[in-house]
Amino acid sequence: xxxxxxxxxxxxxxxxxxxxxxxxxxxxxxxxxxxxxxxxxxxxxxxxxxxxxxxxxxxxxxxxxxxxxxxxxxxxxxxxxxxxxxxxxxxxxxxxxxxxxxxxxxxxxxxxxxxxxxxxxxxxxxxxxxxxxxxxxxxxxxxxxx
Length: 146
Known about the structure:
73% of the residues lie in helices and 6% in strands. The chain is mainly α. The chain has a two-stranded antiparallel ribbon.
């Protein structure tokens, strides 16, 4: 992803990787075979490669004196996600224990205690991709020195 971000800019690459993760999470929620799960995990992992692009964007968008502080905040936010993500999934599973809702019948997409974390993560990725697309300003690079 880092090479794509350098070539096409951080904004479209991050938005596309978040959309890719959303597709992976939705496929995870809809999976009925082992290969669907493997494919979903592949898409989620490939989309998660956006961390290098985000760090590239953050380093280019901040002054030198603030860069270390911002990188620490990014690492902290990532660690917080590692801690809160499973907790949110557990809370959704507990809330939906014994319940099932058909969102796209017949049985294409239903939400229950097993699929809710994937559907929630997919919705969060879509929301994040839209925020990136609408609100992130692409960095203007200086022309190369001659």
